[in-house]
Amino acid sequence: MAAEKCAEIVQRISISSGQELMAALQDLSALLNSPSFSLRELVPHIPVHLLFGCLSTKNDEQIDVCKGILKKLLSLEKADAVIMHYHDFVIEGMNHPVFEVRELCLSELERCSATINGLEALLDNVDVLVYTVRALSDENLSCAKLATKTLVNTAKHDSGIELLFQHQIKSEFEALLLKKDVIRFRVYELIVTIQALSDRAFENCKRCGILEKLGKELDGDDMLLRLNCIELLTQMADSGENGLMFAKEIGVVKRLYNLLLSGDADPLMSLMLPSIIRFFGFLAQSRPVEVTEQYPAFLQNVFSFLTACDPALKLIAIETVGAVSLSEAGLRAVFDNTIRNDEVMKILCSNIKSSDADIRSRSLEALVSIFYSPNVPSDELSLLAKSLFTAMTLNPLQTLLDLSRQPFEDVHCAVLKVFTSLAKYKWAQEHMTTCPGFLEYLMDRSTETDKAGKEQKYELIVALLRSPFSKETFEKPFHLRLREYEREGPFYVRVQAAVAFEGAD
Predict the structure, then answer these.
(1) pTM score, two decimals?
(2) pLDDT of residue 495
(3) Main-chain phi, psi angles of 272, to 5 degrees
(4) DSSP at 355
(5) Best CA proximity match to 210, nearest among 226, 197, 194, 223
(6) How many whole angstroms separate alpha carbon 211 and alpha carbon 243?
(7) Is 123 strand, coil or helix?
(8) Model confidence pLDDT, tens digit, residues 202-247
């Protein structure tokens, strides 16, 4: 019955046009969406090429219905079918004036590229890859993104990375670089992503010369393009040793440092400073000593921006202090001057009481990083952390506890993360035992009402229990209560017994 009905509709589609064709397509769509029939039962009776042919129209409604049918049919085909069986239709669809058709074909190619068989089919059909590269210039961003994903998947294959940089496709990239700025930067973004995939991918990207052209964008006059350039160069430098070394080779690091030094002389530079600071911040996370020694103006600017009037500069400075301080080497590089250390910690402490939510949250995140230690801290690290903590204010733990009582769930969770970072230090645990109300706060499950807060508080309890100092610091009855909290889990709710009395209302 279903097969006969389907065959009758397909016959109508094959001989109809205009409104009759539209009615037949709608009938087929209704049949495929009917709960009375199995989609897999119907698909063998529907020639997909017939539906592709129906896309050759200016009728938007027909295109929309046809696209919906094709999506269902193709979803049941193997990923490589789009190339193996519908090669010509897909190329025609990628050049269709209606973006939804282009999007459909490109989404199928992206699905194809994510499988081994599909990728091999792609590599055997260079013309499809050529049109995929051209789709980077599509006026519709979703189409360009699908093309990017397909090309990145292709580059993950050894044969794919070689093919992408052979003459035919390389010349397509070069042609795109001559188009308008937004398309040129899509190519840059693609190449920056590909170079991070493997050493082989990096060498191909380096040889093609596109990364070097990206570096030269720094010398342009358009401030927005220079900002986009710095963002991509930051991504490249942060992607691994290859990207960072190449950034140095082509003089990017030196040029950015010179721009940082000239910040005061050029008023427009204030727009670029956050991006430049972020670039050096990424470098300093993996090479804190090298970066802070070779580029001293980086940290000098960071410290001065902590009190900047420009909120963008202030936020990036706070974020950078936290990001670089996450490792012990980074913490020592940032906090190497006692007087300045005290100033920085006082600023962060003042910030966590700010009415500006971004300033407050970034400062709390910075404190989490500053006091974080993946292992039991050494005596030397413990002393440094303690000096930074005590520099914040007269009673920093009480300040944080008071902050946690504010009616903001995000603040609760952020403060709990700070407490969790502090939990590994013996001196911090000792502060907890003497801070009025702190131990009661630890045991009080009602302080957190959302899932994230409950989980974070549980993580704090576990961190305290795992510390080698907790048995020594906390009295035995309280230590047992911590163990009970851990055993009950983050979402435990104590049941209150209700007793009914005769005669009660």
Answers:
(1) 0.82
(2) 66
(3) -95, -20
(4) S
(5) 194
(6) 10
(7) helix
(8) 999 999 999 999 999 998 888 899 999 999 999 998 888 898 889 8
- Region 178-195 average pLDDT: 96
Helix, strand or coil, per DSSP, at residue 185: helix
Mean pLDDT within 371-396: 94
> How far apart are alpha carbons 121 and 492 in whole angstroms?
54
Tokens 């709710």 label which residue?
A: 493
What does the block give as tokens for 142? Answer: 């979703």
Contact 318, 366 (CB under 8 A): yes
Length of the chain: 505
pLDDT at residue 307, rounded to an integer: 93
The answer to whether the CB of 34 falls within 8 A of the CB of 26 is no
Q: Which amino acid is at 374?
A: P
CA 287 to CA 294: how far, in whole Å?
A: 11
The residue to which tokens 């200016």 are assigned:
58
What's the first-to-final CA gap in the chain, in angstroms?
A: 67
Classify each residue of 126-162 as buried b or exposed e, where b means 16 or more C-beta atoms within 10 Å of its C-beta.
Answer: eebbebbbebbbbeeeebbbbbbbbbbbbbebeebbe
The three-state DSSP-derived secondary structure of 449-481 is CCHHHHHHHHHHHHHHHHCCCHHHHCCHHHHHH
Write the CB contacts of 45 (distance below 8 Å, at least 6 apart in sequence).
3, 6, 7, 10
Among the listed residues 311, 289, 307, 310, the one whose alpha carbon sits nearest the alpha carbon of residue 298: 289
